[in-house]
Amino acid sequence: MLKPFFVWQNKILKNINPAEVMCLLTEGNYTKIILSNKSYFMVRSSLSSALKKLPTDIFIKTHRSIAASIYFIDNVSRDHLTVGGEPIPIARQYYKRVIDQLNIIE
């Protein structure tokens, strides 16, 4: 089982299981943590500092402002991947890292 992390919500710390996180998106100074049930939490943190607190083998940075969970990736193409039916762009400089982090049987 993965170690849970906590986020502040209405002055209360909310427990979140990393296995339920689909992706992380940055919006200005905030990071949106999107869960599998399509709910989300906004935290005042950069994407890189949020990723430091999450399991590195689960989350893949696909763009300077986006990271996705390998558990929710439906398919991968050269310029984007699909997470929960939503396309997420893959920047050219991140494509090799994305492919290397996936467990691919050839």
CATH class: Mainly Beta
**DSSP helix fraction:** 10-25%
Oligomer: single chain
Number of domains: 1
Let me know the number of strands. Answer: 10
CATH superfamily: LytTr DNA-binding domain
Rg result = 14 Å
Instruction: List the strand order in the largest sheet.
Output: 5-4-3-7-6
Average pLDDT for all residues: 94
- Count of alpha/pi helices: 2
CATH architecture: Beta Barrel
The shape is globular
Largest sheet: 5 strands, antiparallel
Percent of residues in β-strands: over 45%
Uncertain runs are none
CATH topology: OB fold (Dihydrolipoamide Acetyltransferase, E2P)
* N-end to C-end Cα span: 29 Å
Structural class: alpha+beta
Order of helices and strands: EEEEEHEEEEEH
Task: Give your account of this protein's structure.
The protein has about 110 residues and is an alpha+beta fold. It has a single domain, classed as OB fold (Dihydrolipoamide Acetyltransferase, E2P), CATH 2.40.50.1020. About 15% of the residues lie in helices and about 45% in strands. A hairpin with a 4-residue loop joins strand 4 and strand 5.
